[in-house]
TrEMBL record:
NCBIfam families the UniProt entry points to: HAD-SF-IIB, Pglycolate_arch, PRK01158.1, SPP-subfamily
Pfam families given in the database record: Hydrolase_3
Enzyme Commission designation: 3.1.3.18
Annotated residues for binding of substrate: 150
Protein name: Phosphoglycolate phosphatase
Regions that span the bilayer: none
Source organism of this protein record: Methanosarcina vacuolata Z-761
Length: 226
């Protein structure tokens, strides 16, 4: 078994607990001989900046799969899903005090501060005739299309890179990484990951955050898989 690329979540996976990029994980990623794609619920500009700081080529999946690009010199491609998210936001705002995060930069979804009753909001959302869901990444609540996720984004980006999603090893920590695990060839959850992602993983690291990412990559190298 040999994999051709890595796709890794950012926050909680290749960062420290306080959300700074983990220097050990950065050094390990730079040493790899295969492409590394960053996948995040955050904005495209954030993902591209992280890719640049790490020393990668700019292939990123952002906004939970709604925005992707394969290189720094290419414009991002965006799903047309923001309008339905705005409809859901408008209704939910009648029942909850919601605060948007990065509204000027998000093109395909709405990110909300985690200061309202998520379960009640999800229950209300189910009564609406909209293909919209709410995902908690532990850093924000994402109001997004049910048709968009990191797995869909990975399949599209893999095609742009002349690869298949099964050629990738996916590394992540939260529920929005689930679909990415499902379409990849092998999924690794870091030790601080949600239970749902640990259950879906093929391997779970003992270490957490960036230390877990280093452990994951060393495990793959020890098997001769990358």
């Amino acid at each position: 078994m040999k994999f051709k690329a890595i796709v890794a979540d950012i926050d909680g996976t290749i960062t420290c607990e306080k959300r700074e990029l983990h220097l050990g994980a950065m050094k390990k990623i730079r040493s790899l001989k295969i492409p590394v794609v960053l996948a995040t619920g955050n904005t495209l500009c954030y993902a591209r900046t992280a890719s640049r700081l790490i020393g990668l080529n700019g292939a990123v999946i952002a906004e939970n799969g709604g925005a992707i690009t394969s290189r720094f010199d290419l414009q991002g491609t965006f799903e047309e899903s923001l309008e339905e998210c705005e409809k859901a936001y408008s209704v939910l705002s009648n029942y909850f005090k919601l605060t948007k995060l990065d509204p000027l930069y998000r093109k395909t979804e709405i990110a909300l501060r985690r200061d309202f009753n998520l379960e009640k909001a999800r229950y209300l959302l189910k009564t609406l005739d909209l293909d919209i869901e709410m995902v908690d990444t532990k850093y924000a609540i994402h109001l997004k299309s049910t048709k968009i996720n990191k797995g869909v984004g990975l399949q599209k980006l893999a095609g742009m890179m002349d690869l298949k999603s099964k050629n990738f090893v996916a590394i992540g920590d939260s529920e929005n990484d689930l679909e990415m695990f499902e379409v990849s060839g092998f999924g690794i959850a870091v030790g601080n990951g949600d239970e749902i992602i640990k259950e879906a993983a093929d391997y779970v690291t003992e270490a957490s955050y960036g230390d877990g990412a280093v452990e994951a990559l060393e495990f793959l190298e020890s098997k001769g898989w990358i």
